[in-house]
Structures are given as C-alpha cells and as structure tokens.
Design brief:
The chain has 128 residues and is of the alpha+beta class. Strands 1-2-5-4-3 form a 5-stranded antiparallel beta sheet. The radius of gyration is 16 Å and the shape is elongated. α2 packs antiparallel against α4.
C-alpha cells in the first residue's frame, strides 16, 4: 500500500543512478482505516535522518475519546518517532516501515497510554 518515490541523481548511457526520496501510503489504504465513531489523529514529526531533515507523518486510529488522551497520544507518537527513527539510516527506516516493524513497536507503546486500533506511518518525506 506504499508508493516509493525515487530521485534520479545521474545518467550514464543506459544506466540511471537513483536514490529513494520518499515513501507515501496510498489514499485507499488510509481510507480503509477510518470507520464510523472513531478518531483519526494526524501527527507530523520533523526528524533528522543521516544529516537531512525529513517529516514523518503518522496516523493513529482510536475510539472517540477526550482531548486529554488525544494530546497524550500525539506527544507519545512524536517522542517515539524522534527517538526511534533518528538512530536509523534512511534505508533501514524505509525497510522497517514497509515491513511494519516500527508501526508494531509504536502500537505497543501507545496502548499503554490509550487503546488504539491502528497506527500507520503515512509518509516519510524530505523537508523542502
């Protein structure tokens, strides 16, 4: 359910050298998570990965709740993303996102604050 966006760095004859630019979840995948009577929390966290600034956009799906719990969830998501992703390389971050390892760890950490239905990393994009 992800789109991987590449940036071409150079061209040598028939060969192209490209690097991964960003990772974006498809709209269909996002819309499947949202149901009636639940809250969707969008959290955008700036992170420095390998000396370059990125935005990690996260969606958290939880039952309808009070604003205090929503605020606590947003804070916990930002802390988790900052701590977990800033240690890793860009390649490792993309691989762990595509295999849902980061999302599973985050889901377990967030359930200690308030029960969540799903946690997804919606996008990892460079800061412009």
């Amino acid at each position: 359910g992800y789109k991987i966006i590449f940036r071409i760095e150079s061209a040598d004859g028939e060969k192209l050298n490209a690097r991964i630019e960003s990772l974006v979840m498809s709209r269909e995948q996002i819309s499947r998570m949202v149901r009636h009577n639940i809250s969707k929390l969008d959290v955008v966290t700036p992170v420095n990965i390998e000396g370059k600034d990125y935005f990690v956009k996260t969606d958290c799906i939880a039952n309808k709740t009070e604003n205090a719990y929503k605020t606590a969830l947003r804070k916990k998501i930002s802390e988790f993303i900052s701590d977990e992703i800033s240690k890793k390389s860009l390649k490792d971050t993309f691989i762990e996102t595509l295999t849902n390892k980061i999302q599973n760890k985050m889901h377990k950490a967030l359930n200690k604050v308030y029960p969540t239905r799903a946690v997804e990393i919606r996008a990892i994009e460079p800061k412009k």
